[in-house]
Amino acid sequence: MLPLAKLTARLSFPTSVTFPYWMGNTFRGGFGVHLRRACCPDLKRDCYSCDAREDCIFYYTHMKKDSKVGYGAPPKPIVFIPPFFGKSFIVPENGFLDVGILLFGRFARFLPHVALGLSMLGQSGIGSERHYDINKFRLDEMRCSFSGDVVYDGNTINIGAMRTIDLADYTSDGISVTDRLSIGFETPIMVKTGKFPPGLEKLLGMIRQRLILYVNEYGDGAKIPDFECSASIKSSSIHFHNIKSRSQREGKRDFFTYTGTAEYSIQKIDENAIQLLRIGLLIGAGPKPSFGLGFIKMID
């Protein structure tokens, strides 16, 4: 169906750093600038006229407009998931920050490029205050979430320590679903229609839609089965976030998003739904995954 690698990058900061409350755009944009500098032999050339674009990681992560299936832009094969605190926060001097990274399909082999791009971003600094020669960081390590092993120790890459799973084999084992289920929306999620939090059936549908896009673009195009689920929301907490994005291609945009929690009372749920839930704990739900949106967790 779809190979996937999941990493955690630890960034250490020699000086105190203040971050905005949402960093998805900051990491994606900053990484892209340095990734292109690292891998492009001609920065003045237009990407769409470049003969090497089909083998270029920057083209796929930041420039490709057309999907293999459908008419919209494709999901991005490398996703950064910075933590979300809902407010501006400070990383103290000699502190650290852990950032999640997903690599889909054949793009797991670009681990060295990810390490190089992040390292170059750290040398330059991140966020608007980098212009004052601050907000710099060091990429201390990258650890595989599936093997538990270090794949980059700050100096050497050990790509053999990285384990890739296929989501087709990622069954419902390890998830216990009874008649109650609590979900935490860790990073902001976009709900285009209806209210937040979404019902469990709708949330599973949002996971399924994200999965379909990735399987069509970077997997084998397998059909994702339908599921059956019936549940009601017993309690919830809701926090609204108008997060702002800015890029050279898209200009300024506002994303109307939510975080919070939802406790569901389940009347019916089949194995396909449980498998989707487990996959959703990895890949998230809803639109804009490349900005780190829509990632969820189960709450005990």
- Cα Rg: 19 Å
The overall average pLDDT, rounded, is: 90
Largest sheet: 6 strands, antiparallel
Provide the helix percentage: 10-25%
| End-to-end CA span | 30 Å
Structural shape: globular
Please tally the helical runs, counting DSSP H or I stretches of 4 or more residues: 5
Give a description of the structure.
With 300 residues, the chain is an alpha+beta fold. It has 2 domains: 3-166, 2-Layer Sandwich (Alpha-Beta Plaits), CATH 3.30.70.1890; 170-298, Alpha-Beta Plaits, CATH 3.30.70.1900. It contains 5 helices and 12 strands. Strands 1, 3, 5, 6, 7 and 8 form a 6-stranded antiparallel beta sheet that branches. A 4-stranded antiparallel beta sheet has the order 10-11-9-12. The chain has a two-stranded antiparallel ribbon with strand order 2-4. It is globular.
